[in-house]
Amino acid sequence: MDLMDSLFVRPDRGGPGLLLRGAPGVGMTALLDAAAVRAADVGIRVLRASAVAFEVEMNFSALHRMLYPLGHHADRLAGHLRDTLHRIFGLAPGPSPDPLDASTAVLALLGEVSVERPLLLIADDVPRIDRASATVPGFVVRRIRDGPVVLLAATRTGVNWLFHQLQLPVRETGPLAA
Hints:
alpha/beta; 5-stranded parallel beta sheet
């Protein structure tokens, strides 16, 4: 837990984050749960998405789950950014947003919201996250390196997915003790 605690030492200055990697069933979700509790205890807002296999073909489904609690903040943004977020949230008609438009809108939203308090983005079981959602955190993390936003993600050993390209520090996770 010391490594995860280090993510919260300076909540006003995030960093890229951390990728947990381990075999299925070793307790990575329990570690993410504990990190969420610790983050909330120090005043960090936690936004979380747990991938679901049947949603992998639904564009932005994981991003929708993670960011929906911030939906009311979208109205603070410029028209095109707000409209893009409303399409991601299913609140406006139109086609699925372009990945660059979606990423830019999410970056603006997180920048706006993180002024109030730091953010911890948690993504569980990242290989099952839909591709459209998986590209956005990478875009955001690469641009808010010193901002108050941290990404904490979990993946299975031996599975490569877009999050591996973020060059986050990786923590190999073995089975947790009872």
